[in-house]
Design brief:
This protein is about 25% helix and about 40% strand. The termini are far apart. It is an alpha+beta fold and about 150 residues long. The chain has one domain (about 1-140).
Length: about 150
């Protein structure tokens, strides 16, 4: 706990965004798909908090199931910001600018396919510009997704 306080004291609190990462086998998986946090804090065996500085882009997946199967599957591509208009996203505190939001099995799978295509073009998905993420979001929401299109 002392190390967390030390890390938080070196950076202004208004410039930090915390992302909650949780894993429970066959029940819940809230994970970072990509992004380089400034630091992470372990909160037990199945939990950690990834902390990002302002201006970073990351991918965050939230999956939840019960005994009947998948109940909720969401994928968010976000850009952290220190001020201005932020969207409240579950598991992201205080919030971030949402570049892409995919809700439901089909849209999340289409988004993951597009991300695989982008990986061949870019060294890191964090390097992809916000404009590209917004275009992908619009393509998926309007049904313009074509297989094989990057």
């Amino acid at each position: 706990m002392a190390s967390l306080a030390k890390k938080l004291s070196t950076a202004p609190a208004e410039n930090l965004t915390a992302v909650i990462v949780v894993y429970q086998k066959n029940r819940m998986n809230h994970r970072l798909i990509f992004g380089e946090p400034a630091f992470t804090v372990r909160r037990g065996w199945r939990r950690e908090i990834a902390v990002f500085q302002a201006g970073k882009i990351f991918g965050y997946e939230r999956w939840r199931a019960n005994k009947f199967g998948t109940q909720d599957w969401r994928l968010f591509i976000c850009e952290t910001c220190s001020a201005g208009s932020m969207t409240k996203i579950p598991g992201v505190n205080p919030g971030a600018q949402m570049l892409l939001s995919a809700l439901g099995k089909n849209r999340v799978k289409r988004t993951l396919e597009r991300m695989d295509a982008l990986r061949t073009e870019h060294e890191s998905l964090s390097d992809v510009t916000p404009r590209v993420w917004r275009e992908i979001h619009n393509d998926i929401e309007t049904g313009l997704f074509v297989r094989g299109k990057p």
